[in-house]
Write a structure and sequence with these properties.
With 562 residues, this protein is of the alpha+beta class. It contains 19 helices and 15 strands. Helix 12 runs antiparallel to helix 18 and helix 13 crosses helix 14.
């Protein structure tokens, strides 16, 4: 026996936090000099940037760039950058990665950001460098909303720099212009701070206007506490309109009443908003689980997609002689049945059914006497021996399916039918993914109680604190934070005791978590995290060694075919 395998799927456990305080945000103010104005035709000749946070300069970046083409005379006269200036300078292939490393996760700021960021993005695409898509602030757009024409004659960088008393005069050189833009940015922040702008998102949306409903309901955020947890938008009748999570509820909720909120599904429910309810949580995981449960129970109209466990699709091998069929509910497997999933799409049902039966019964067997393709299809009736072999491939040993898929793929490659080979490989990968997901859910659900520990991630807790998690039959049964220097064992025991007292009808157990796979997968992701330690186990949390559905096994089988 071995511990359950790590999943190939990675789900980001985040609070979808917005509302980055301006004093904490790193910003990189950038300016470019180029050979022209068309990002698709022209090239960068100089990059200058200043990294700032909370009014302090953290660093500067400046380099010439060899554009590998002549610099037009009028550009040279404007910027003072000539062909001789950039001779021997590094090419953009070397410079752009260095700049992106300098900028890292910072907010990008530029005066007329469409121009500067447009050039950077265009060069990244040409070099096949993944553009990180950072938040972008445009001081030109912000200046137009802050400095009216009765105060400045125009919104050119030189005009604004002189107006705010910038320490550097812009001169069409990248670093000088970036330094001047920093002073303009700080002047804009000071103005907008007096109007209530406290976050990067407030700043990014300052040139837009809030809706009447946002302005009317804004006061509801004043009573929201600055704690981590779950928030619910509730109408006058008590109906839940929207659910979300954050590490700082007050900061997050305030963004819904600013111009940074532009999602139509959210704006449409704000006129009906009557109350904001909050639930304080000990950890990100607890908040994520509570959010899932509330969405599944209430089906709020403003959440992008309601979580409906009964809509998950599984590939189920029925008991006895029943064949493979699609199923909406993961049922008990005590009768000799089996199931894998949830599937990525209903379009996976027929290919996976064919792959499994072909691997066990031979090519073409799955095409004779097949049932319907929908969730009510019964599939082909199977003799006891093929039924047992298919069940084993689904639950215990996938090697027959892998070997069959690899052989078909090699045959297609040998006949130069590469698209067919890729299709077979995709089907085998879909099978392994569905089998692995079901395997992990099945193992976790079969464990009556599991208590594990991980270093706490929250900023509210000092280094050395531990987060304890209790899992009962594949569902969240409790979370506790143990401060540094405190013995976690008594806390773990109490957590297990309280979790065991939860009525079973509130924590339905059974194979594949009876449709609560979203919650169980959140728990699995946490359990796979760095530093996780199992504190206590009631029963067994393990799967047979041969049943490890490792994608690397599939890749190895296909190596010769590739």
């Amino acid at each position: 026996m071995t511990a359950p395998p790590r999943s190939g799927r990675r789900r980001q456990l985040s609070f979808a936090d917005l509302g980055t305080p301006l004093e904490e945000a790193e910003m990189v103010v950038v300016d470019l000099e180029t050979t022209g104005t068309d990002p698709s035709q022209d090239a960068i000749t100089e990059i200058g940037a200043v990294k700032v946070r909370g009014g302090d300069v953290l660093g500067e970046f400046r380099t010439f760039v060899d554009p590998q083409r002549p610099i037009p005379a009028y550009i040279a006269s404007l910027t003072g950058i000539s062909d001789a200036t950039v001779r021997g300078a590094p090419h953009i292939e070397a410079v752009l990665p260095m700049f992106l490393d300098f900028a890292h996760d910072a907010v990008l700021v530029a005066h007329n950001a469409r121009f500067d960021v447009g050039f950077l993005r265009s060069q990244a695409a040409r070099l096949e460098i993944t553009w990180p898509s950072p938040p972008v602030l445009d001081t030109l757009a912000l200046a137009r909303s802050v400095f009216k024409r009765d105060e400045v004659r125009d919104h050119k960088l030189g005009t604004l720099a002189a107006h705010v008393g910038a320490q550097v005069t812009p001169d069409h050189r990248a670093l000088s212009d970036a330094r001047a833009t920093v002073d303009v940015l700080h002047a804009i922040i000071a103005r907008l701070g007096d109007r209530g702008a406290r976050t990067v998102e407030d700043l990014a949306s300052a040139h837009r206007k809030v809706t009447p409903a946002q302005a009317r309901k804004r006061h509801l955020a004043d009573t929201v506490p600055p704690v981590p947890g779950v928030y619910q938008f509730v109408d006058r009748e008590g109906g839940v309109l929207y659910v979300g999570t954050s590490h700082d509820l007050r900061s997050r909720v305030r963004t819904y009443f600013s111009a940074s909120e532009t999602r139509r599904r959210v704006l449409d429910v704000l006129p009906r908003l009557h109350e904001i309810r909050t639930i304080e949580c000990a950890s990100r995981l607890e908040a994520a689980v509570r959010e899932l449960r509330i969405i599944a129970r209430e089906q709020p109209p403003a959440n992008r997609q309601g979580l409906k466990p009964e809509k998950a699709l599984w590939l189920r091998l029925g008991p006895g002689a029943d064949g493979l069929r699609a199923a909406r509910i993961a049922r008990s497997e005590d009768d000799g049945s089996a199931q894998i999933g949830p599937l990525r799409s209903r379009h996976d049902v027929e290919p996976l059914r064919a792959l499994l039966t072909d691997a066990v019964m031979g090519r073409g067997a799955s095409l004779e006497g097949a049932g319907g393709s929908g969730a009510s299809g019964t599939g082909r009736r199977l003799a006891p021996e093929p039924h047992a072999r298919i069940r084993r491939a689904m639950l215990e040993d996938p090697s027959p399916v892998i070997a069959h898929a690899a052989a078909r793929m090699r045959a297609h490659v040998g006949a130069h039918r590469f698209e067919d080979a890729a299709r077979i490989k995709g089907q085998a990968e879909a099978f392994l993914a569905a089998a692995q997901r079901a395997q992990q859910l099945r193992a976790l659900a079969a464990c009556p109680m599991l208590v594990a520990a991980r270093p706490a991630e929250s900023r509210r807790h000092p280094a050395g604190a531990w987060e304890l998690l209790a899992v009962r039959a594949g569902r969240h049964a409790g979370t506790a934070i143990v401060p540094r220097g405190t013995d976690p064992v008594p806390v773990a025991r109490e957590l297990a005791r309280r979790g065991a007292e939860i009525p079973l009808d509130e924590l339905p157990s059974g194979p594949l978590c009876h449709g609560h796979h979203q919650e169980s997968e959140l728990l699995l992701h946490w359990l796979e995290g760095e530093g996780m330690r199992v504190v206590a186990v009631e029963g067994t949390w393990a799967v047979p060694l041969r049943a490890r559905f490792d994608p690397q096994t599939l890749q190895a089988a296909f190596t010769t075919a590739d």
